Amino acid sequence: MLWLLVHLVTTAVLAGVGWVVQVVVYPAFALVGAGEWPEYHRRHVVRIGWVVGPPWLVQGVSVGMLLLASPWEFALLGVLAAAGVALTVLAAVPAHERLDTDRDLRILLRANLLRSLVWSAATVVSAVQLASGLPFTP
């Protein structure tokens, strides 16, 4: 149950960060002036990496351990973790790289909304599995 608890905590952290970014951080991007934007965005990317990097790494390790222990019981968590990675790599990162227009910001907000929903779903699934007492032997 330890890896499931670790997974629950890390996905909850990612979901929380995702929702704060969705409601507060990304909308505030539109308030940054054009002259300040490049430095502001560069610093945001570096700092947010320190916030999401560690829990994302731990989430990857925990879902890997869960899948090794019981692939069928934890397959949904694996799919959700993969979806979070795919949304980040295929949508959020490219949107960040070209953030020059309101349209780019809308794309980024949409990608982050989907990512936040995936992380929220993984949190709920982990909590339900933990509460149901699914067996786990490392």
From TrEMBL:
The chain crosses the membrane at residues 12-33, 45-68, 74-95, 116-136. Keywords: Membrane, Transmembrane, Transmembrane helix. The keyword Transmembrane applies. This is DUF1772 domain-containing protein. It comes from Pseudonocardia oceani. The lineage of its organism: Bacteria, Bacillati, Actinomycetota, Actinomycetes, Pseudonocardiales.
